[in-house]
């Protein structure tokens, strides 16, 4: 049986998951590909750290990355170190040495993906990155191949497990943000510094990668407007529930007549929407296209074996392409001008929560400000907080974000409004 | 630009959807594949029926199928007629003429898939069938390639839109089976003769196709145990809701230590399970594997454009393979002995509803029969129907199906039990 030799760069969570699957499913993988896939070298910076691990015969650790690039028997390099500079250097070196590359590095791809893909084609090899977004959920190849007959009009994703864990737990337990974040940190679902997750940056990087493929454009991290979940309040979640909505941090890429809008922000969605049922640390991507109508892809967005599963499927694909002499066929897919549509112009329904005086005529004053801004109201709930203050939760009809900004200014100038608590968009279609 | 010529056999729902997508997404598809895909001939039995349709230049109807097989310029044949005998004859003729084939014909594949796939490899061409199961949801290639690094341990699917529409509506409206079936027929979600759907046959065919790929075995329709939804009662749905369960018609293929079990039957699942949120005519497949943990694929299970989307993605793949001289690489994937596990031996929790005398000591008598059969009870609800009768709804712990059959016999011999209403398995993991 033909053998394809693989080197791993990095042996952290994803590297170990990849290795574990390649070893334990070895026979199955050989059956399915007709090829023996063998990890022969694993690059780690500090070999001593791994001295307790016994590798199978024919596999060894090295701290000399050049040993891997110089090894002509290695045809596939798997970059699972993360980081930008050194990882990019290694990937470029590998591609230029006509070795195919598998990477799980979303930060790098969100910054330099199109450039690296061009480089792979130029060198006649494959660069694959199924594991860079949505962990174990097969989505890159799904968008690129299986949905290739569709004009994709919208992708909406729960792209970050940490924030979905936090929001799901706030929803199910009625608990506050800080409390649930602390629990998530204790359970290992959130990092000590949770910024990249809770501020939506991680989701934005994934949205950039997914949108590039779905919409055939060169999209980068900085093209995405981002807002995190740190201001979400248990009060809003409870009001949302009354209106039939569930809160999610969504990455939304939408093709409009005026361009492509790219946003990550907390959003209410109907509790009947399939994305609303995505709980805990799970991820999902909901896709609309002019053939499929709609579809959703759901699963583990992170973790050693799920992410390893995506890496392994990429390695298998490359192995098959080596066998059939078919590398370098992943043509660049950026046919269209970027043509972005500013997020401020997107129309949406909104949820607005304000604290007001508890007195006669307050609702009329608030309603007249909404009317002045041509915002129509779909629903409103009033809750008395104490003798002097009430909370108003308002659901508007669809309107541009600028109308909402204007009415918030108007509310702030209204004497009966004590505080504008929250403004949350509602995804209605 | 290279051109690949395609012939359609059949121009019904799926054929028209395929054609519509190829025409309206023509430029996008050409960009994505680098190939101009052109339908040049469409075989229909009765040309006159289509005389009102204006085809684009270079495309024409024919009622002579030989004209297509003899046309050397046609490299891809798309079989979207359905049926067994003539469709099979055409597919075999096409493969033997070294033309690649795309088919949406699940009945034929569930009966003869492995044979036809072998024939395609023998002739060095592709036979693709993404559209044969789950309409627009990309699942064949997902199982075959994207999840290829996994040992798949279980697939559980909502594989039939008609029955899911009926059960969802019964659940949401509290309506009876006959009433909802009539509504489904009126709306076009159920056929005049709904047997293949409501008796689970359609779902069983799809489970056979999916299991072949997931478990690398030659599985046929007759290997699947089938039970339909016609006996499901609104009462059971209501009791299930109380216990936190939702009713679904599930296709369940499960790898056990003693073999592969293949079953289609109505089942309760936790209302928190992702499959529980699949409503209306939507389909979904939930997959467990030793890498991904779990994942779910959700979307339109039927319809002209969704199913057409799957056909088109297969045509695109074949076109790319023609371009790269890479046809015939879909190797047969039946590595394992069939080794089926009889469905009667599967362990499961069960829901049992019985009508009993409304008198003291009845519960004790029922409970002792359960205890005699070593069945432990997880929950029980009693509802008085009138002065003389009560309903007992019982949820058991996991036990073999044979225990349940025994206890049902015992109930039937118990004087206080007036009727055994329903027995429904509960999927607990």
TrEMBL record, chains A, B:
SUPFAM superfamilies recorded: ACT-like (SSF55021), Glyceraldehyde-3-phosphate dehydrogenase-like, C-terminal domain (SSF55347), NAD(P)-binding Rossmann-fold domains (SSF51735)
Signal peptide: none
Binding site for L-homoserine: 191
Record carries keyword Amino-acid biosynthesis: yes
Entries under InterPro entries matching the protein: ACT-like_dom_sf, ACT_dom, Asp/hSer_DH_NAD-bd, HDH, HDH_cat, HDH_CS, NAD(P)-bd_dom_sf
Binding annotation for NADPH: 106
Catalysed reaction equations from the record: L-homoserine + NADP(+) = L-aspartate 4-semialdehyde + NADPH + H(+)
Recorded family membership: Belongs to the homoserine dehydrogenase family.
Protein name, per record: Homoserine dehydrogenase
Organism: Veillonella seminalis ACS-216-V-Col6b
